[in-house]
Structure formats: structure tokens, C-alpha cells
Automatic annotation (TrEMBL):
It comes from the Bacteria. One of its GO terms (molecular function) is tRNA N(6)-L-threonylcarbamoyladenine synthase activity. Transmembrane segments: none annotated. NCBIfam families: gcp_kae1, T6A_TsaD_YgjD. Gene3D superfamilies: 3.30.420.40. Fe cation binds at residues 111, 115, 302. This is tRNA N6-adenosine threonylcarbamoyltransferase. InterPro entries: ATPase_NBD (IPR043129), Gcp-like_dom (IPR000905), KAE1/TsaD (IPR017861), TsaD (IPR022450). Keywords: Acyltransferase, Cytoplasm, Iron, Metal-binding, Transferase, tRNA processing. It comes from Ventrimonas faecis.
Length: 336
């Protein structure tokens, strides 16, 4: 079964051809990062326009790289939420047009189900059920993947998403956008124990996260240094911040796997490419005799291959969308 998948929920225009949900035949990503960097973040209107400009080219390239034609494809998969409405609409319109013209079924996919499914690409032995920590730019969820596309949410952030915290701290210390990868790199030159930042616990909810207190502590630290004229050691600062985030993520994810009795733990989303998180998660899982799964960095951040994986399992379950499929900017996980 071949899926042609399209992703345009944020600032990546992407298309991919995926075979049987696990084998990526092509993975084309046109990133708009350079375009948005000058504004310090994604400008929705600019993102939509750029998607329109790129989408046809990206889809054509994906088919070409996979050495297939539209006729070979069994279904068209597309992200229809959550994300920026104008950005999503471009991918949804493209997918509907292709599916209609080529007489192929249309399968709408939840972007976060895509992030989780990225784990299937390089881990042929990974099958539900397992615990998954979803850490992206807009989401921080701890879920049990009960079956393909079936999630039980057991924890979530009460305020900022993990990726958002990385981006805000990076901006505050002048590392630029997107902040995650820059913090990751700069933190390698710092001491993760240099500054003791608070570890927030959500009272009565052992699997929930909170990052706004940590973010405020970092900003206060910076402001205080500015007032006293003290020099800030940026590598130490971001390394200590990153360490606090990683500790919060790892401790809750591993606790969840143990308490709920799963011996498989996966991570997903852009922050899953963070080198400190991966190392700490591996170490904690080894200790607890849990198998740790993660996608390669290219499949952690936004891409269409992960959408192709998710679309395949939805397609097998019989999920089909009509020509009235619309972008749903605040689509909830588990909704169809
Ligand atoms: P969502 O998937 O929730 O809709 P998104 O698609 O914008 O949001 P992703 O593409 O999954 O988010 O991930 C982007 C986020 O991941 C950004 O916040 C970015 O800073 C963060 N990120 C990327 N690489 C790293 C890294 N190496 N370390 C930490 N954070 C990272
Ligand atoms: Mg992006
Ligand atoms: Fe994403």
C-alpha cells in the first residue's frame, strides 16, 4: 500500500511517499525557517503564502524521488489539524484536489498522531501498546498509545509546551529562532548544574508538566544580571535550563511506564531530537529495563513521512474523509 502524504501545518511544506506505513520512499521538506528568522518566529500570513508557492513542486518531487506516479498511489494522506489555519488549508486543498482528480481516497491525519507515528519508521519491531512522550513546539503530552491512532492522555502541560520554553529562553539570551537546536548545541559547552532552577510539580497530578515557572526563573536570572551588571555565562545558563526540562520530562515518562506497566517508551515531536533528552531517557530506561524508542532527528521535527505512516494505519482502519474535509486549527488528539 502506497500513501502520498502532505504536511503544511506550520512552516514546513512537506510531501512524502510511504510504503506499508513504515518504509519511506521519499521525504521532501521545504523549510521556511530562513524566511521567519528575521521576525523571531513564524508569521502565519507569510507561511500560508509560501506554502502556496511551494506545494506543487514539493509533491512532484516526492513522487519523483519515490519513482512512482500518482496512479501507483493507494491514498492521499494530509494533516488537517492542529496548526495554523491558513497553512493547514493549503495542504488540505492540495490533497483534496489530487485525490479528486486521481480518484483516490482521502485520509485526514492529526498532526500529533503523525509525530507519534514517526517512531514506526525506523523501529520495525515497535507496535502498540506503549507509552509516548510527545514534546513539540505546541504540545507536551504523556500518552499511552493503546493501538494505532488510539491514545489515552495521562499527562499534559498546564502552561507552556516544552518546545515553546526552549524557544522563549533562546530568544531571551539572544540565540535566535528556532531556539531548540541552538540551545541544544550551546548547552554542550555549559555546566548543567551551574544554576539551580526550580523543578515544578503539579500538585496531585504526577504526570502533568509546568514550564512557565522555570521560564520565569530564567528570565528573572537574566534581568537580575543585567541590573547588577554581572556577566551571564550563556552556555551554563541554557545548559542548566535544559537540564531542568529534561529532568521533568524523563522522570514523569519513566514513572508512567513503570506505574502503568509498559516496557516500551517512545518520544515524539521536535524536542525529541534534543541530544540531552535522548541521552537521559536512554539511561533512565536502561536502568528501569524499559525499551527506549525515538525517531531520527529529521523525523522528529515536522515532515510528511510521519503523516504517511499515520495515514496508512488510518487507511487500514477504514478512515476516509470527504471533499468537505476542512482545516481544524485546534483539533484534539483522538478526534476524527
Ligand atoms: P506542534 O507539532 O505541536 O504543532 P510544531 O510542529 O511547531 O508544533 P515541531 O516541529 O514538532 O513543532 O517541533 C518544533 C519545536 O521543537 C520547536 O519549539 C523547536 O525549538 C524544538 N526543537 C527542535 N529541535 C530541538 C532540539 N534539538 N532541542 C530542543 N528543542 C528542539
Ligand atoms: Mg517547523
Ligand atoms: Fe509538529
Amino acid at each position: 500500500t502506497l500513501i502520498l502524504a502532505i504536511e503544511s501545518s506550520c512552516d514546513e511544506t512537506a510531501a512524502s511517499v510511504v510504503k506499508n506505513g513504515r518504509e519511506v520512499l521519499s521525504n521532501v521538506i521545504s523549510s521556511q525557517i530562513a524566511l521567519h528568522t528575521q521576525f523571531g518566529g513564524v508569521v502565519p500570513e507569510i507561511a500560508s503564502r509560501k506554502h502556496i508557492e511551494k506545494i506543487n513542486q514539493v509533491v512532484t518531487q516526492a513522487l519523483e524521488d519515490a519513482k512512482v506516479t500518482l496512479a501507483d498511489v493507494d491514498a492521499i494522506g494530509v494533516t488537517y489539524g492542529p496548526g495554523l489555519v491558513g497553512a493547514l488549508l493549503v495542504g488540505v486543498a492540495e490533497a483534496k484536489a489530487i485525490a479528486f482528480a486521481a480518484k483516490k481516497p482521502l485520509v485526514g491525519v492529526h498532526h500529533i498522531e503523525g509525530h507519534v507515528s514517526a517512531n514506526y519508521i525506523e523501529n520495525p519491531d515497535l507496535e502498540p501498546p506503549f507509552v509516548c512522550l510527545i514534546v513539540s513546539g505546541g504540545h507536551t503530552h504523556l500518552v499511552i498509545v493503546k493501538d494505532y491512532g488510539e491514545f489515552e492522555i495521562i499527562g499534559r502541560t498546564r502552561d507552556d509546551a516544552a518546545g515553546e520554553a526552549f524557544d522563549k529562553v533562546a530568544r531571551a539570551v539572544g540565540l535566535g529562532y528556532p531556539g531548540g537546536p541552538k540551545v541544544d548545541k550551546t548547552a554542550k559547552e555549559g555546566n548543567p548544574h551551574a544554576i539551580e532552577f526550580p523543578r515544578a510539580k503539579v500538585e496531585g497530578s504526577p504526570y502533568d508538566f509546568s514550564f512557565s515557572g522555570l521560564k520565569s526563573a530564567v528570565l528573572n536570572y537574566i534581568n537580575k544580571a543585567h541590573m547588577t551588571g554581572e556577566e551571564i555565562n550563556v552556555p551554563d545558563l541554557v545548559s542548566s535550563f535544559q537540564n531542568a526540562v529534561v529532568e521533568a520530562l524523563v522522570s514523569r515518562a519513566v514513572l508512567a511506564a513503570k506505574e502503568y506497566g509498559y516496557d516500551k517508551l517512545a518520544i515524539a515531536g521536535g524536542v525529541a531530537s534534543n541530544s540531552a533528552l535522548r541521552a537521559a531517557m536512554q539511561e533512565a530506561c536502561d536502568k528501569a529495563h524499559i525499551r527506549f524508542y525515538h525517531p531520527s532527528p529529521i523525523f522528529c521535527t515536522d515532515n510528511a513521512a510521519m503523516i504517511g505512516c499515520a495515514a496508512y494505519y488510518e487507511y487500514k482502519k477504514g478512515t476516509r474523509h470527504g471533499w468537505d474535509l476542512n482545516a481544524v486549527p485546534n483539533l484534539k488528539l483522538g478526534e476524527r
